[in-house]
UniProtKB/TrEMBL annotation:
Protein name per the record: Outer membrane protein TolC
Cleavable signal peptide: 1-28
Lineage of producing organism: Bacteria, Pseudomonadati, Bacteroidota, Flavobacteriia, Flavobacteriales
Coiled-coil parts of chain: 369-434
Record localization: Cell outer membrane
Length: 454
């Protein structure tokens, strides 16, 4: 029996020493990560944030593409043609000194070559003008969308940051419980060796130690999984060790009285910009009813002869000449089979749908603020109660432990008091988490998530 108890005691000591060494090595090698640091890292490295910035950059190129339709379109062309068999044309014989007859005569030359430059310039095209306005709105849309993406990254990182902290706090509670229970077991072991304690008490405290160790392993795994999730949302390599300072989990007062202006929220601004783009889409379809006017011009050079005109001379029978054209092109739509009208009506339906979405978005944002405010108020009450409860549970445990060691209380009371303290401490930590998560939602509902980077 002494051998078994000695083995258990050595195992407990090894566990404590190993945990201390593990904590020391981690803190020595870990990167201390405040919430501000985590968010800044995510905004610079997370793929979602990078892609949103690229979308903004791409919108500039989309504007250039639309603008090109209002600029001159210039192209060069060239061709060379060989006619093995020339087409015969029926001509009056009068041209050849044979009146009253018809003569089949070939027209053209065996070789022709040409080259030139053509220009087209839109003078009036309502669709182009509308497209330019829509392109600028598209850039603003992607800028707002990038801001929304950054806010979503901030929210995910903050939520997971606090989740990691809670898991680590629960692990600290279980570690403290293990140390205290180990001390109690050592005392019971001494009492048992001296015939002052029952074997069942020693066995029960030993079983509890094993259970605590199992819970600890589960929490270690939970901490690791939660840290991996945080690093993923940050865009940080998973193998990077991190440490979270406890100052990041303090309860800070929040302004709860004044409701935020929903119209300034990024989600609302984005849907407003979508509505504007759909309005431009409708206008671009209506522009198809308008006439279009464009200028075209061209200058060409043509060579003909029995030989390949390139590098040939008049002495070879090859002659070159130039010609040019300038024209105005007017297109007036008259009837399109009601296709344009149908597409205008479809665009109008899309506008009415986005207006309904806008009203629903406003209602959703108002709901989020009210829910966050209610959760904040309730969490503050819960935190106060759980903090007092944890303090009371600590006092009960101290008194029960003292009574047990003096033989005035059974082991059951001691184990129940320890369990009550662990539960109270975990409830307090969970209440803090609920508060911090509600705090994030409240800050989000005010449109102030970016302040978390300050």
């Amino acid at each position: 029996m002494k051998t078994r108890s000695s083995f258990i005691k050595l195992k407990a000591i090894a566990f404590i020493i190993g945990a201390s060494l593990f904590s020391g090595s981690v803190s020595a090698q870990s990167q201390t990560l405040t919430l501000k640091d985590a968010i800044k890292y995510a905004l610079e490295n997370k793929a979602d944030a990078k892609k949103a910035k690229l979308e903004v950059e791409n919108s500039e190129y989309q504007i250039q593409e639309v603008r090109s339709r209002a600029l001159p379109q210039i192209s060069a062309n060239g061709n060379i043609t060989y006619n093995p068999i020339l087409q015969l044309n029926a001509l009056p014989g009068d041209f050849f000194g044979a009146p009253g007859t018809t003569i089949l005569a070939p027209l053209g030359q065996k070789w022709t070559a040409g080259g030139g430059v053509s220009l087209t310039q839109n003078i009036f095209d309502q669709a182009v003008f509308t497209g330019l306005k829509a392109a600028r709105s598209t850039r603003e849309f992607y800028q707002i969308n990038a801001q929304l993406t950054e806010e979503q990254v901030i929210e995910r990182v903050a939520n997971n940051y606090y989740e990691v902290f809670v898991q680590r706090e629960k692990l600290a509670v279980i570690d403290s419980n293990y140390v205290n229970t180990t001390k109690a077991k050592s005392i019971i072991q001494g009492q048992f060796d001296n015939g002052l304690a029952k074997k069942i008490d020693l066995d029960r405290i030993t079983v509890k130690l094993y259970n605590i160790n199992t819970q600890r392993q589960q929490l270690i795994n939970a901490v690791q999984l939660q840290e991996n999730a945080l690093k993923f949302y940050m865009g940080m390599p998973i193998e990077t060790p991190i440490t979270l300072p406890k100052t990041e989990f303090e309860v800070t007062p929040q302004a709860l009285a004044e409701a935020p202006n929903t119209a300034t929220r990024t989600e609302y601004l984005l849907i407003e910009k979508q509505e504007q783009l759909l309005d431009f889409q409708k206008k671009s379809i209506i522009a198809e009813y308008y006439p279009t006017l464009s200028l075209s011009a061209g200058y060409n050079y043509l060579g003909q002869g029995p030989e390949m005109p390139l590098f040939a001379k008049p002495a070879d029978g090859v002659y070159w000449s130039d010609y040019s054209t300038i024209g105005l092109n007017l297109k007036i739509p008259i009837f399109t089979g009601f296709g344009t009208r149908a597409r205008v009506r479809q665009a109008d339906v899309d506008l009415r749908k986005i207006q309904a979405d806008k009203e629903d978005t406003k209602l959703s944002l108002d709901l989020a603020f009210e829910n966050a405010r209610t959760q904040i108020e309730n969490s503050l009450i819960t935190i106060k109660n759980q903090k007092e409860n944890a303090q009371l549970a600590q006092e009960v445990l101290d008194n029960t432990r003292n009574n047990y060691y003096q033989g005035l209380a059974p082991l059951t009371d001691l184990l129940d008091a320890e369990n009550a303290l662990v539960e109270a401490q975990n409830n307090y930590t969970s209440a803090l988490l609920e508060y911090k998560l509600a705090e994030i939602q409240l800050i989000k509902s005010k449109g102030e998530l970016r302040t978390l980077t300050n």
